[in-house]
Design goal:
The chain is mainly β and 126 residues long. It contains no helices and eleven strands. The chain is 0% helix and 50% strand.
Length: 126
């Protein structure tokens, strides 16, 4: 129904910036709220950021507020995560995810999202 493909990850130094992209296909992109999650080795998948279907509201984990920015371009069926002033603790596999906009659940819960990308690795060296 929905396919999500992340890109833009890589190896960077602390303080550097990256922009992750997630391209969606298969269904109307504007029908979905979108989220970014990350998972470090040996840890649970954790919420990073989310954006409503229209882009009117955004939500962030406390650990990334002020450094990471989520945005979307519905015309391009793409959601972005601008990552600034990266820290070693940001190292993780980053996943984008989609949920139906009418599904009234918490944005920060992985269980709220029905569709997931394959992930892209972000590694930040000190």
């Amino acid at each position: 129904q929905v396919q999500l493909v992340e890109s833009g990850g890589g190896l960077v130094q602390a303080g550097d910036s990256l922009r992750l992209s997630c391209a969606a296909s298969g269904r109307t992109f504007s029908n979905f709220d979108m989220g970014w999650f990350r998972q470090a080795p040996g840890k649970e998948r954790e919420f990073v950021a989310a954006i409503r279907w229209s882009g009117s509201f955004t939500y962030y984990a406390d650990s990334v507020k002020g450094r990471l920015i989520i945005s979307r371009d519905n015309a391009k069926n793409t959601v972005y995560l601008e990552m600034n002033r990266l820290k070693p603790e940001d190292t993780a596999v980053y996943y984008c995810a989609a949920k139906m906009k009418y599904y009234s659940v918490s944005y920060n819960s992985p269980d709220s999202y029905a569709y997931w990308g394959q992930g892209t690795q972000v590694t930040v060296s000190s």
